[in-house]
Amino acid sequence: MPGFLATIANQVFCGHSGTGQLTPFPAKVYVMGQPVVPLSAVYTIVLCKLAASGTVPPCATGTFPKGALKVLVANGPGQSPALIVPATGTCMPQDQPRPLIAPPAGQSRVAAS
Predict the structure, then answer these.
(1) How high is the pLDDT of residue 77?
(2) What is the rounded CA–CA span in Å between residue 65 and residue 72?
(3) What's the pTM?
(4) Residue range 22-48: average pLDDT?
(5) Domain map of the chain by residue range?
(6) Given this model, what pLDDT does residue 1 score?
(7) Which of the residues 21, 28, 68, 76 could staple to 82 if both were Cys, CB 3.0 to 4.6 A apart?
(8) Bond preceding residue 86 cis, omega within 30 of 0
């Protein structure tokens, strides 16, 4: 599915209004001065509302399973496709996968498929 390349300016949320913070990654490709997010990036989820329940563990990390098929962010071994938005991923802990959402707000000049 085509979409815009995600940069660090894109916000990511868990399904319970927690926010995703990118784990640092080596930036290799920039769009409008912002690093493009590789599909291999991991988000740390903070302020997940499930933490208040006390019975279900809150979302801790999140990843996205699909990205651009033709755009690679890093060169050499282990190339990673770029994350495109809008996208839906998965939050963990593994015993209870939950939705992770990257809305399309962010740069709107570079599209990929």
Answers:
(1) 52
(2) 15
(3) 0.84
(4) 88
(5) 3-112
(6) 62
(7) 68
(8) yes
Percentage, residues of the chain above pLDDT 70: 90
Region for 69 from its dihedrals, namely left if φ exceeds 0, alpha if ψ lies in -120 to 50, beta otherwise:
alpha
**One-character DSSP codes across 15-78:** TTS-EEEEPP-----EETTEEBPBTT--EEEES-GGGGTSSSPPP-EEE-S---SS-BSS-STT
Say how far apart CA 91 and CA 14 lie, in whole Å. Answer: 7
Euclidean distance between CA atoms 106 and 108, whole angstroms: 6
Q: How far is CA 99 from CA 13, 33, 77, 113, in A?
A: 9, 29, 30, 22
- Predicted confidence at residue 72, as pLDDT, reads 77
Q: Residue 109 contacts by C-beta under 8 Å, 6 or more apart in sequence?
A: 4, 31, 32
Six token digits for residue 107: 């740069």
CA distance 73 to 50: 33
Backbone angles phi, psi at 107, to 5 degrees: -65, 145
